[in-house]
Amino acid sequence: MKVKINKLPKSIVEIEGELEAPAFEAYFAPALQRLGGNLEIPGFRKGKAPEAVLLSKIPEIKILEEMAGLALNEHYPKILVAEKIDAIGAPEITLTKLARGNPLGFKIKTAVLPEVELPDYKKIAGEIRSDLENAKRSNLEVTDEDVENTIMDIRKSRAPKVHITHPLTPSPKEGGVNNDSLSLGEGQGEAKEELPELNDEFARSLGPFQDVADFKAKLKENIKLEKEIGRKEKTRLEIAEKIINETKIDLPEILIDAEVQKILYQMESDIARMGLKFEEYLKHINKNIEDLKKEFQKDGEKKAKLALILNRIAAEEKITAPAEEVAQEVAHILEHYKDADPERARMHAENVLTNEKIFQFLESQ
Fold this sequence. Notes:
It is built from 14 helices and eight strands. With 365 residues, the protein is of the alpha+beta class.
C-alpha cells in the first residue's frame, strides 16, 4: 500500500493512498458472500446461491463499494499505527479510484489530537497566586458588618409577609385639602415584612446553635470559609485563563462540538429538574438549538483547550489520582446513582481527582 500523509489546518490529517490491485481483488469473494448472505433468491436457500447468480442480481458498483469498505476497515487502523496518527472521531472517506483489476484509491480525512505548546505554567501559576494573595488578603477578614449583613439576609428570608390595606384616602378640594372630609379610596395596599427577632430561640431554629452568641461565632467561621473558597476558585480561574491564553493549540472542531454538546446536555438536565420541557423553554426565549450552539461556541472552545492543557501538564509532571481515592469516589457515585455504568464512573472519578491534583500542584508554585 502506498500512503501519503498531509497535515491540514484545525488538526486535520489527510491520508492519501492506494491499495494495489491484487490486494484489493482479494476482497471480491468476501464482499460478494457478505452481500449475497442477505439476498432472497427464488430457488436457493438464503446465502447459498452460486456466484454466477449473485453477480446477475447484485450491481457491480455495490460489490466494489463493499470491497472498499472491507479493505479500509482492515487497513485504516494499520495505517494509524504505522504512521503514529492519534485519530479522534469518525473519519471522512472519499474513494478516488474504484474499478475491478485496478488499485483502490482513497483519501481519508480525520481529526487528530492536537499538539499542545504549553507556556511556563509554573511561573504563571506562581505569579497569579502571589498577586491574588497580596491583593485579597484583607478581604478574607470577616468584619462585624459582614456578620450583621448576613444575619439580616437570614431574618428577611424567614420574615412572613403581612399585607397592609389603607381604605381611606384624603379627598382633594379645589384650593387645598379639606381635612374635615375623608373619602373612601379604591383600597391601596402594600406588603410589609415583619422581621423575626434575633434571640436565642430564633438562633436555635436555624440549626445546632446554643444561643445568639454561638450562632454568630459559627456564622463568622462559615463566612470566612466561603471567602477562602471564593479566593481559591478565583485563583484557579485566573491561572486557567492565563495558561489557556498563552498556550498554542490548533484545536479541531470535533473537540469543540463535543464540549458544546456537554453544555447543552447539562442545560437540558437543569431545565428538566425544574419541571420544564426543553422545547417549551426554547420557545419562551425565542431561540433554537443552533442559536444556543453558537452562543456556547467560545465556552466549548475554552473547555476543550483546558482539558488538553490539563492532560498535558499531568503527563509532564507525572500527576495521577491515587487508586484508593478513585475507588472511594466510584463507590460514592454508584451508591447515589444506581444505574451508573461502573467504567464510566471510574473514568469520571479519575478525571476529576486528577484535575484536582493538577490545580493543587499549580497552586503550590
